[in-house]
Amino acid sequence: MKIKYLTAFVASAALSVGVAALPTTFNTVQADPCAGVENPCAANPCAANPCAAVDPCAAVDPCAANPCAATDPCAAKPCAANPCAAADPCAAVDPCAANPCAANPCAAADPCAAADVVTATEPPHAEVYVEEDSGLAIRGADPVAYFTEGEAVLGSAEYEYEWNGVTWRFSSATNKEMFTNNPEAFAPQYGGYCAKALSEGNLASVDPRAWKIVDGKLYLNYSMDVQAQWLADVPGNIEKADAFWPTVLAEKVLYENQLSWAQ
């Protein structure tokens, strides 16, 4: 099943960059193996000291096979200084900064491989989105805090309340009491499932930080990127989602990503 807003699911696949293995010894000759050779990295990678003074490997991928060493400098410590380069190609580079789920060229494995692991659960589903790992409504976020503090706030195990068959958490006794007195006023629309997904007739988990109060009602979305799509036509998307809710609970697969949003 294809859904537009879930392009991030492709990122759930673990990415890796292999490092070419190099022999631990090289063939030697009786005479100077580098005699008459101007580029020590071209014809003979085992010159007396091909890495001294001048960088002979400037145009060579520093994390590929290293022609200037008996072992691969990128294997054991992939982000250490590369003896065949003038500078460390991995220095000061955070592989998770620009594209957190892209392959890390300086590591044997992608450190972000598990950042967006997606699971698919067959219907039927509960009326309220419950995170599989925690068993909490809307990933343990305090639904009242969106209205009182204007931000996503993690609830506490000290303030829990059972409503609509699931456990809700709150950041204070006051917020818990407010919810207890009028749950419908604070509970998110569509049971806390992604509002954009619902507008397309699908079900997905939410990031509690991707929220919006519209006409006094709370809406959550799968991610900030997905929320941007939803915000492009809020009235239209709400109208579409209303038409699908709640029949999708008995018909559609739920896609849920792993998210430690409050840590």
Highlighted features:
globular; 6 helices; 14% strand; 263 residues; 16% helix; two-stranded antiparallel sheet
What do you see in this structure?
With 263 residues, this protein is α+β, with helices and mostly antiparallel strands. The protein has 6 helices and 7 strands; from the N terminus they run E-H-E-E-H-H-H-E-E-E-H-H-E. The strands form 3 sheets. The chain has a 3-stranded mixed sheet, with no helix packed on it. The longest helix has 11 residues. The protein is globular and about 35 Å long. It starts with 117 loop residues before the first strand and ends in a 6-residue tail after the last strand. The N terminus is likely disordered.
Q: Helical percent range?
A: 10-25%
How is the biggest beta sheet arranged?
Answer: 3 strands, mixed
Structural class: alpha+beta
Low-confidence stretches: 1-34, 43-47, 71-115
Q: Based on Cα principal axes, name the global outline.
A: globular
Instruction: Output the helix-strand order.
Output: EHEEHHHEEEHHE
What is the typical, i.e. mean, pLDDT? 73
Q: What is the rounded distance between the termini? A: 32 Å
Tally of DSSP helical segments: 6
Oligomer: single chain
Strand content: 5-15%
C-alpha Rg, in Å?
27 Å
List the strand order in the largest sheet: 1-7-4
Number of strands: 7
